[in-house]
Give the backbone structure.
Amino acid sequence: MRAVICVDKEQALSVQETPMPQAGPGEVVVKIKAAAFNHRDWWIQKGMYAGLRYPIILGSDGCGVVHAVHDHADSFWVGKEVIINPGMHWGNDPAFHASTFKILGLPDDGTFAEYVKVPSSALYPKPAYLSHTAAAAIPLAGLTGYRALFTKGQVKKGSKVLITGIGGGVALMVLQMAVAIGAEVYVTSSSDEKINKAIQLGAKMGINYTISGWHKLFQSATDGFDVIIDSAAGDGFKHFIDLAKLGGRIVFFGGTQGPISTLNPQKIFWKHLQILGTTMGTPDEFASMVKLFEQHQIQPVVDGVYPMEQAEQAIRKMDTAAQFGKIVLQIAD
């Protein structure tokens, strides 16, 4: 089969012939129709991720048709269109993942291939209203965003939510889910164009965080936020303490801007704030996320669709965060 291979760190992605995966006990083989990039793939290619191994077939997100199964009990999946939960072996405690937890695409070969092997427990029916490319965009970003927004953030109708760095896959999923359930959503970005696109998707207001004192503009325009969803951390995180309402929640799942070094503890405890870390989610959260998408007919934002042969060109869009939405590989017609 053909697959997109990351041969080593800082090396271009290339399409190569590689052996077909074979399903073992509890596993199935899925013929991939479309697969989507995440920043995780970018970090692995850069050699800046835990547990690296090369060569590796990247890709955590995928949509396709079940091709083969190992166990007779899974035979009903054969021929079914599915999306794949990339988080494997979460464990028994919904509060945190077990030591056995892993994400598809490292250490195991991922979805940037004509076929991929996954546990049958990772399969979910593809939402019928979505194309293969749209469905492939959902899994990792949708799951991460759902847990951040609802499990950790406890967002509900009428909640006032700030989403930072709009334009990335998770941030846009959070925006769309929050708008769908009736939350009041605000955004930040370094791009006025991305802010305008977010407003078209239902955001009430956005501010460019490259403006000096950007957080003060929010303070003058709002009475604060019930929930702030962030993926950058860094020194700018301190402004969230001022922007959060009394009893507010600040949820984050990334650290692209580095350590959080300047927080005022008095403000945090006096405002009764909660600062919550999260990543990925449970199988139950994945099922609830898919149900939410189906209920509200949410269309994931796709920045562009590329053939496998242009995988390197596609991932380079992430170098400058130029994308607005998910970048998808078309694996098969």
Observations:
- The chain has a mean pLDDT of 95.
